[in-house]
């Protein structure tokens, strides 16, 4: 009876405090909702919630009710006009002119990001669990019991830490490269070994206007027709060389200039490695400044790549499986029977395709935020007071880069966590 009374008092107090101050935040719950904005203009972003069970489907980006209404409208338009010309790009096979330059910048930022991370991980320690996908930035791994690997029950879900690398900080899922994203948008099961797989963000840039000699793609000069829901191309047939070279809005020269733009940060990190520095406290003031410049450069590349990719995804469709991490850039998903997630027997191994998000295109690998690398390991009993951030942001922040505004609320910088000896005194 006593517990019920205290719970009702706490609920009443929480409701009263929320009415008086809508921006009040507790450690276990936060207001307002995710992706909202506080009255003073400060952006609020919370870490996306993971699925409770692997059998649950991913949340839809667009509500199902809107998808049904959109499908009905397309069906009625198809009946009213069976043969029509698709006018708006990229559905008609043409490029979106204002996104061609964005695609080149995203490709450049990706190369700059990988190069910067490859240098930072040699100075700032990155740890990964040998039995699961957990990653931690720091000299000592955290003690939060969230391991889901083999025999985790016998270890009380504690992690087994080892040294990590760039692939543990950020992951770029791969997808099939489409030569003709409109004419042949789907890859068959028998074609799985003949079509190359490349990082999905590179495929997105290629479809948005980036030209790479290693991965040719078809560029049209006239829009395609839609006859009873099927795409028909009446464009005159020309030689393959002319087709590949015509209407190309750029080539891979911007990526060639990438090495020259990163020469200076590269030399700065090499100076740190020549001194055999294994701890950040051993850095001098000049070396700290060099590391800070590289961290700022890498963090800016991450923000530019993420914002540019999100802008391209507003026009170019990207699909992901609702139960597994498989992703495909294009108007439709592939037909490979390779899904091994929940309920795959009822789908004959086919993927349950739905609209993808930026986290599906680039796996940011969220990690626990640590204020100081020299502090003791994070305590499992205080995990509700700790924040999280993408591993790239956490790594660059410890390198000296300022915390971006969009990640401050996610990292819970305004929450003061109690000490280990104060766990029993905290409600």
Descriptive overview:
The chain is of the alpha+beta class. Helix content is 33%, strand content 11%. The chain has helices at residues 2-20, 64-80, 97-120, 166-169, 200-207, 240-245, 253-256, 258-261, 263-274, 285-313, 358-361, 391-398, 405-408; strands spanning 36-37, 43-44, 83-85, 126-129, 135-137, 161-163, 174-176, 197-199, 225-227, 230-232, 318-321, 327-329, 353-355, 366-368, 388-390. Strand 11 (318-321) and strand 12 form a beta hairpin. The longest helix has 29 residues, at 285-313. The model is unreliable at 1-40 and 236-264 (pLDDT under 50).
Return the domain count. Answer: 1
Structural class: alpha+beta
* Quaternary structure of the protein: single chain
Which strands sit side by side, in order, in the main sheet?
A: 3-9-10
Shape: globular
Average of per-residue pLDDT values: 80
Distance between the termini: 18 Å
Gyration radius over CA: 25 Å
Helical amount: 25-40%
Order of helices and strands: HEEHEHEEEHEEHEEHHHHHEEEHEEHH
The total beta strand count reads 15
Strand content: 5-15%
Number of helices: 13
Note the main sheet. Answer: 3 strands, antiparallel
Describe the structure concisely for a colleague.
The chain has 427 residues and is of the alpha+beta class. It has one domain (64-233, 283-425). The protein is built from 13 helices and 15 strands.
Which features would summarize this protein structure in a list?
RNA binding, APO domain-containing protein, APO_dom, globular, 427 residues, 15 strands, 3-stranded antiparallel β-sheet
